[in-house]
Design goal:
The chain is α/β, with parallel strands linked by helices. It has two domains: 189 residues, 3-Layer(aba) Sandwich (Rossmann fold); 66 residues, no CATH class. Helix content is 29%, strand content 21%. The protein has a seven-stranded mixed sheet, sandwiched between helices. Strands 2-1-4-5 form a four-stranded antiparallel sheet, with helices on one face. Helix 3 packs parallel to helix 5. The protein is globular, with a radius of gyration of 21 Å. It starts with a strand and ends in a 12-residue tail after the last strand. The relative contact order is 0.13. It binds adenosine-5'-diphosphate and magnesium ion. Adenosine-5'-diphosphate binds next to strand 2 and helix 1.
């Protein structure tokens, strides 16, 4: 079954700073989010995940600049638009109505002096200006219960809730807008593992009921293996592998993906030995030549230090759904 694309990131490049000193934090990223899909994006800290999320939503703080690419958004009714070329006015409407974003530490952005009810109702009011106060209150209660919080918590102030609850309130606010796309950038890392799984589980259930697509960003690949449909792995600003979650878990092609899989305890399935990845992520200001993972790669061989492998379909029989950027698995088109 071929699914409709909702968001297509094409050749996206994001830099911090200009000229010779620019840090190329996101390089030539191509990634498609399909309707109703949960796409996971994983990679160690510093690999460019947040920069990608901020860039594609145009929330990039200075000195960040988008130096190339397109972000094509397929509207529910209307032609596809390039988010990167929208005016600020068009962008405001787009951002609130169609895409919701929950960033890391979002729970700290609740206003401490207002009750949860006020904040949630304000969001609903902004989205549905013609709604009545009674219907807004009913909707606020409904949204809270969707994320597993009892409606009597509406009368609480943020400090009266736990971190996990505050983060779930933020998720409720994001979903109150009935977005078509939800982007979550490490929304649960500050919370304990049990809470992370609980929130993600609820999100998946809601996705099935409300029909939105999710781009879920985390450094913890084991969560994605359990909860996402497809997974993209990022390293040194590039996507190095993309595959259906089950395929990636069963048979990762890139040695970096393999290393990540062995860095976190599996939540389900057979136990894996935890070996981690030797060394540390590259300094974006002085990237290694060739494949930027080669200095840490246990399988590096002759071409790896010289040439950057292109992300493409590996030359495997009958496996069209995945792509990898690794000289061990040259892309089909680069094989003569
Ligand atoms: P991740 O979310 O995967 O941890 P980030 O997108 O935060 O990665 O960072 C990617 C790279 O961009 C890192 O090397 C980081 O040092 C650099 N970077 C992030 N924010 C800034 C900034 N405001 N100014 C300069 N460099 C930045
Ligand atoms: Mg980040």
């Amino acid at each position: 079954m071929i699914k409709d694309p909702v968001l297509e990131i094409k050749g996206l490049n994001v830099d911090y700073g200009l000229g010779d000193h620019a840090v190329h934090a996101v390089r030539d990223v191509n990634l498609t989010l399909h309707r109703g899909e949960v796409l996971g994006l994983a990679g160690e800290s510093g690999s460019g995940k947040s920069t990608l999320a901020y860039g594609l939503t145009r929330l990039l703080p200075p000195p960040g600049v988008i130096s190339g690419g397109q972000v094509i958004y397929h509207q529910a009714d209307g032609p596809p638009v390039d988010v990167l070329s929208l005016s600020h006015k068009e962008l405001r409407k787009f951002r609130w109505a169609e895409t919701s974003i929950v960033f890391q530490g979002a729970m700290n952005s609740l206003n401490p002096v207002h009750k949860i009810s006020t904040q949630l109702i304000d969001v609903i009011k902004a989205h549905e200006p013609t709604s009545t106060p009674a219907s807004r209150l009913a909707r606020a209660r409904e949204m809270l219960s969707l994320v597993g919080i009892s409606a009597d918590r509406l009368e609480s102030y943020p400090h009266q809730l736990s971190g996990g609850m505050r983060q779930r309130v933020m998720i409720a606010m994001a979903l109150a807008l009935e977005p078509r796309v939800v982007i979550m950038d490490e929304p649960t890392t500050a919370l304990d593992v049990v809470m992370q799984r609980q929130i993600l589980g609820q999100l998946i259930e809601l996705r099935e009921r409300l029909g939105f697509s999710v781009l879920f960003i985390t450094h913890d690949l084991s969560l994605l293996v359990e909860f996402s449909d497809r997974i993209a792995i990022m390293y040194g600003g590039r996507i190095v592998e993309e595959a259906p979650a089950a395929d990636l878990y069963r048979d990762s092609l890139h040695p970096y993906s393999d290393g990540l899989l062995h860095s976190f305890p599996a939540l389900r399935g057979p136990r894996r030995e935890l070996t981690g990845i030797p060394g540390s992520p590259p300094d974006q200001r002085s990237m290694p030549t060739g494949c930027s993972f080669h200095p840490r790669c246990p399988k590096a061989f002759e071409p790896c230090a010289d040439k950057i492998p292109v992300l493409g379909e590996p030359n495997l029989l009958g496996d069209q759904a995945r792509s990898v950027a690794c000289w061990l698995h040259p892309a089909r088109e680069t094989v003569a």
